[in-house]
Amino acid sequence: MTVTHHVRVHRSEEGLAREDQLAWKIAQVAVDPVEVLPEVVDMVVNRIIDNAAVAAASLTRTPPSAARAQALDHPASRGGAGAAVFGVRDATTSPEWAAWANGVAVRELDYHDTFLAADYSHPGDNIPPILAVAQHAGVDGAALVRGIATGYEVQVDLVRAICLHRHKIDHVAHLGPSAAAGIGTLLGLDAETIYQAVGQALHTTTATRQSRKGEISSWKAHAPAFAGKLAVEAVDRAMRGETSPSPIYEGEDGVIAWLLDGPDAAYEVPLPGPGEPKRGILDTYTKEHSAEYQAQAWIDLARRLGSERPELRDPANVRSVVLHTSHHTHHVIGSGAGDPQKYDPAASRETLDHSIPYIFAVALQDGGWHHVDSYAPARAARPDTVELWRKVTTAEDAEWTRRYHSEDPDEKAFGGRVVIELADGTTVVDEIAVADAHPLGARPFAREDYVAKFRLLAEPVLEPAEIERFLELVQRLPELDADDVRRLNIVAAPGVLEAAPAPKGLF
């Protein structure tokens, strides 16, 4: 059964036994040899497909191209075979650099899975570093499944309990420890080594949320990849006997006391007890649309409203649009953020992806959402869109905030209620709780949907035979040997990478 751990700050003179520290308890989860449930295995396969899909769609974009170039400038380290880089045939690099390049490719379009609770996360960010180490170290598919299941479990449990964003700490501070724990499970490391790696990974991955504020830059895609890279390096140091700041969470100069809720803080962190299966991945959900997760349900509602009421697409017919929604949606991607960039037609793609007023207006007018076309500068600057967009605001609603934070999966919601006031004085009111693709939505994602998403995003950049090769291989994941795991990569069609940006740097 799940065990809830009381985590608080301890003064140095109090002392805190290692076995009572959260990093040690995370290590105990990582070393538990419990079998992976069949439904968890299936979802791990789904999420590897999902990651490959969104990575394929981003291969020719500038941030993944820069990260790929950096990685390929670093040869494979001497301790293993090296790891594959998405898009590249017959080339390997050191695992931390493969985690970096592949992590940026996965994260660039904001199009893979999500888990939202006390904090936010994209748990699929665990896969690139864990997979890179598996390829480098010659680990089989069954071990890879166990490692990914641990990474998801640890991140989901930390996100359930510890809020980072309230203190403007970026959510990748939960990713460093989870990836380190997942790598520990993958390699069968002992609890002491994993404990040290978790501490180092957390210590080096606490950064501010400015990467997701104001004029959002390309670093948003790099941030989780950086955490994954640091997790690989932390494991390497720990395996060499190097130690970490301790207690990293609970110390009087530690993360909780100075970066989070302060010296009087306490958290209740749920973790699987001994012998308890790691089910965390089953509570996560992927994206049908390339946008911030809180925008998923709003896109579905907007496209439905636009189809049912086409007159709403004309700003001349609309006086105002108010999205009544959760605290997070209002303050992070809504008008409550106070970011003028969220209404700027010249804003970056990363900024528009975090602007629910823009997203709702475009989805309403277009009846859908496209990962490239919906963000095109010409699309953002269309005069009728700009006019409608600037009539869209958000408002925090206590009930939608309560539902957002609910621990009951049947009422947890990420949408809200829209009130559209028309020029003639009438109103249109509608609401949506979860995205259509959510497990409780109108069309929950299943294996065929993940495969379809992969085909859609991969067809422009992968040859048909490569698409089929990857899909056949990944769906046999638990049976794969080490050589098969090394082939868990996507190779771009001839000419694709040659036409991508090739930025030069120091390396």
From TrEMBL:
Domain MmgE/PrpD N-terminal: 21-266
Pfam families on file: MmgE_PrpD_C, MmgE_PrpD_N
Domain MmgE/PrpD C-terminal: 289-477
Record's signal peptide: none
Top-level taxon of the source organism: Bacteria
Database matches in PANTHER family: 2-METHYLCITRATE DEHYDRATASE (PTHR16943:SF8), 2-METHYLCITRATE DEHYDRATASE-RELATED (PTHR16943)
Similarity annotation: Belongs to the PrpD family.
Protein name: MmgE/PrpD family protein
Species assigned in the record: Microbacterium marinilacus
